[in-house]
Amino acid sequence: MSRSSQLLAAVLVNAVYEMKAYPVILVNTVLSPLSFLVLIVFVSQGSLLGVAVLGGLIMTMFQAGTFLQADLSHLKNDFKLQEMLVSSPTGPGTYVAGMALSELVYSSPALVILAVLFALYVPVTLLQAVGILIVLLLMFVTSVSLGFALATASGDIVQSFAFSRLLTVLFSTLAPVYYPMDLIPEPFRIFAYLSPTTYAAQLAQALGGFQPLSPAHMAADWAILLALTALFLWFGIRRSRWREV
């Protein structure tokens, strides 16, 4: 089987067939980012709509990686799929790439809605839109790397779901993703900077014209975000266990 066929198989099994058989599960995928968006819009009386849309996109991309962690753990522990793949031509890179693509397809309803809202309420140039897209892709790579490492190390699906919820709360909800950093009291901002989503949100908000950043500050955010993505990617490669010892 070719690499493209393996990727397509992962997308079909983990996304398309599941979406077709159980369409109700898509409600959670759509409601998770949109519920926070609606809440922020109501509280800010609409003034943070554009910022909240960007936050919804960041949360959806990051959450896709945390969903990957739960799905990989489920396939590994309940169906012993990873044990079968170890002795097959499919390598860990192809397996993770296919599963990651399936999570994007699975998140596509939320991404489509947010993309429409983005086009309506986030006026940007093509260059700015490309910059925001790069930020979102870096968030996805970060969450996928972390999700793969945790999934291969986890021995129980319940534990995996706990990790998934914890990562979403810490990186997508408590961090200033749906609102500007300025709304966090000064003494507590240091904790926000521990999350990679904070730098992604600051860059997206600056590129969207909602939160001005100096060139030096923007360059520092890009450097930190790239470094954190590389660190999580290294962690995912080094700490994941493809073969059981």
Q: Stretches where pLDDT falls below 50 for ≥5 residues?
A: none
Overall radius of gyration: 18 Å
Distance between the termini: 28 Å
Series of secondary-structure elements, N-terminal to C-terminal = HHHHHHHHHHH
Structural class: mainly alpha
**Percent of residues in helices:** over 70%
Question: Can you describe what's shown?
Answer:
With 245 residues, the protein is mainly α. It has one domain (3-239). 77% of the residues lie in helices and 0% in strands. The protein is built from eleven helices and no strands. It starts with a helix and ends in a 6-residue tail after the last helix. The mean pLDDT is 81.
In short:
The protein is mainly α and 245 residues long. The chain is 77% helix and 0% strand.
Keywords, separated by commas or semicolons:
globular; mainly alpha
How would the blueprint of this fold be written?
Layout: H1 3-21, H2 25-43, H3 49-77, H4 81-86, H5 92-106, H6 108-121, H7 126-153, H8 157-173, H9 189-192, H10 196-207, H11 215-239
